């Protein structure tokens, strides 16, 4: 979307937060809980007292989180999360949430220094004036899903999805998806820049991190857990048990067009949780003898790509998939929250039923905004955005999907665009019946979502799998 209406005449109170793919808690005296703390992370009270923060610690309104040389992620009672980089101070000035957005909720925060990444929660959803984050340079707020900010004497703000507004005494700047704003000081109007707000990656640890707080996430050898791209502890690779489960797959038969589907049956996993075989419960396709090109799991959902194999006895040219084991799934008839992608298979390009090429693993990104409020297991909706880089250009898919069978979804594309000539002729969804995305939710309280996507372009058919949390 082009950046329009950059400057406003007044600066409204603005809001930020982080929507997590977790169930919302009810009213609690404390504002937030620590999901993880790596290093000597502390909470500083208004009276100047400090205490160390470990996983599970509660944080009250009025306290300041100081990460020191460590890092932390906290989850607020409205479902929001904030991920804090090293050398960051983040103060909870005034936070109230009764368990629902009824107008009494509010969240006022100060980023005193450092860097953070956020995605919105419920507070401020109905009244943006009830939620804001302040710095001495500018006030930052969002009109969408997530953004990152680095702050020292100046600030850089980079949007992920949605719209971000940055204001100070000199004016306001609205940033759309992928844009970055820069504010040098409190008296200079925010401007666009190409220098993105980059959150420092966690350092590579050779052994145990000095000052590691007891009770936090560790690996199997007792060392600090590795961190994923969101700054969270990376979940260990644990084998999936074989048994009844669900599979979303986008696959191409030799000399045949692309197909996709949500399948229910019996899944067999290998030692590293790669898909080994699948047998459908109800006469649908079954997969076997695949050559695994890539695979991954976080213990709740698995994903991967085959470069050969068989589908119901016919030669298989390629397949990308996401899989869930039923023992990890809890059907939740009401899901109203946002999800962000954290992994993906390499996008695959095929033509005439034959493999042409593939992109890079974990290069596809996207978001889901979900409203599955139906208790009957159907009728809910979600909107989605996917960014798919392949063959030197990036395709962007915007669309909507419908809930079915409790935790499944199937959707069309409202638009598919490209940074190159790939949509010179209109790009269209290629999942049977013209859809572009198909997936399901899994994990306790629907913590994870997985989907396969597929669309036709002038380059050929593009397909792949992506997972969200």
List the helices and strands and how they pair.
Layout: E1 32-38, E2 42-44, E3 50-52, E4 58-59, E5 64-66, E6 71-76, E7 81-84, E8 89-96, E9 106-119, E10 131-134, E11 139-142, E12 146-151, E13 155-161, E14 164-168, E15 171-175, E16 180-183, E17 191-193, E18 243-253, E19 258-269, E20 275-280, E21 287-288, E22 292-297, E23 302-306, E24 309-311, E25 314-325, E26 335-344, E27 348-351, E28 354-358, E29 365-372, E30 381-390, E31 393-404, E32 408-418, E33 428-429, E34 437-442, E35 448-457, E36 460-468
Parallel strand pairs: 9-10
Antiparallel strand pairs: 1-4, 1-6, 2-3, 2-5, 5-8, 6-7, 7-9, 8-9, 9-12, 10-11, 11-14, 12-13, 13-16, 14-15, 16-17, 18-19, 18-25, 19-20, 21-24, 22-23, 23-25, 24-25, 26-29, 26-36, 27-28, 27-36, 29-30, 30-31, 31-32, 32-34, 33-35, 34-35, 35-36
What does this structure look like?
The chain is an all-beta fold and 469 residues long. The protein folds into 2 domains: 233 residues, Jelly Rolls, CATH 2.60.120.1440; 226 residues, no CATH class. It has no helices and 36 strands. A hairpin with an 8-residue loop joins strand 29 and strand 30. The protein is globular, with a radius of gyration of 23 Å. The chain starts with 31 loop residues before the first strand and ends with a strand.
Primary descriptors:
469 residues, globular, 2 domains, 36 strands, Jelly Rolls, disordered N terminus, mainly beta
Helical content stands at: under 10%
In the CATH hierarchy, what is the class of the largest domain?
Mainly Beta
Biggest sheet statistics: 17 strands, mixed
How large is the share of residues in beta strands?
over 45%
- Strand-pairing-aware structural class: mainly beta
Give the terminus-to-terminus CA distance: 25 Å
How many helices? The count is 0
- The beta-strand count equals 36
Please, how many domains? Answer: 2
Q: What is the global morphology?
A: globular
Low-confidence stretches: 1-28, 202-237
Average residue-wise pLDDT: 77
CATH fold-level assignment of the largest domain: Jelly Rolls
Q: What value does the Rg take, in angstroms?
A: 23 Å
The appropriate CATH architecture of the largest domain is Sandwich
């Amino acid at each position: 979307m082009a950046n329009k209406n950059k400057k406003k005449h007044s600066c409204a109170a603005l809001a930020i937060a982080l929507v997590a793919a977790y169930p919302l808690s009810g009213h609690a005296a404390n504002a937030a809980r620590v999901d993880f703390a790596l290093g000597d992370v502390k909470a500083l009270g208004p009276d100047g007292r400090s205490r160390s923060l470990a996983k599970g610690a509660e944080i009250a309104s009025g306290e300041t989180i100081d990460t020191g040389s460590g890092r932390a992620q906290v989850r607020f009672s409205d479902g929001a999360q904030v991920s804090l980089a090293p050398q960051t101070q983040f103060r909870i000035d005034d936070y109230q949430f009764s368990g629902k957005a009824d107008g009494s909720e509010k969240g006022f925060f100060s980023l005193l220094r450092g860097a953070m990444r956020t995605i919105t929660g419920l507070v401020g959803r109905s009244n943006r004036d009830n939620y804001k984050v302040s710095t001495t340079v500018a006030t930052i707020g969002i009109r969408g899903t997530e953004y990152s900010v680095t702050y020292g004497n100046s600030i850089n703000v980079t949007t992920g999805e949605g719209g971000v507004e940055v204001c100070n005494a000199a004016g306001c700047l609205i940033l759309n998806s992928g844009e970055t704003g820069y504010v040098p000081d409190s008296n200079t109007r925010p401007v666009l820049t190409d220098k993105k707000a980059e959150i420092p990656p966690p350092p590579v640890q050779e052994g145990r991190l000095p000052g590691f707080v007891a009770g936090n996430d560790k690996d199997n050898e007792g060392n600090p857990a590795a961190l994923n791209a969101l700054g969270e502890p990376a979940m260990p690779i644990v084998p999936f048990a074989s048994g009844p489960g669900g599979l979303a797959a986008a696959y191409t038969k030799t000399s045949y067009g692309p197909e996709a589907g949500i399948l229910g049956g019996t899944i067999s996993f290998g030692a590293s949780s790669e898909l080994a075989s699948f047998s459908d419960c109800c006469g649908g396709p079954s997969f076997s003898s695949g050559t695994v090109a890539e695979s991954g799991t976080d213990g709740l959902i698995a994903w991967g790509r085959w470069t050969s194999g068989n589908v119901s006895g016919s030669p298989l040219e390629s397949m990308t998939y996401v899989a869930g084991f039923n023992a990890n799934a809890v059907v939740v008839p009401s899901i109203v929250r946002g999800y962000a992608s954290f992994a993906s298979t390499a996008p695959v390009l095929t033509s005439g039923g034959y493999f042409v090429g593939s992109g890079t693993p974990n290069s596809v990104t996207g978001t889901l905004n979900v409203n599955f409020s139906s208790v009957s297991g159907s009728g809910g909706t979600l909107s989605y955005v996917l960014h798919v880089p392949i063959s030197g250009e990036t395709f962007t898919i915007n669309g909507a999907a419908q809930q079915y069978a409790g935790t499944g979804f199937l959707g069309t594309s409202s638009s598919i665009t490209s940074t190159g000539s790939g949509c010179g002729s209109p790009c269209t969804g290629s999942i049977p019946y013209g859809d572009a995305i198909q997936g399901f939710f899994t994990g306790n309280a629907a913590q994870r979502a997985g989907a396969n996507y597929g669309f036709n372009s002038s380059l050929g058919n593009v397909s792949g799998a992506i997972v969200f949390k």
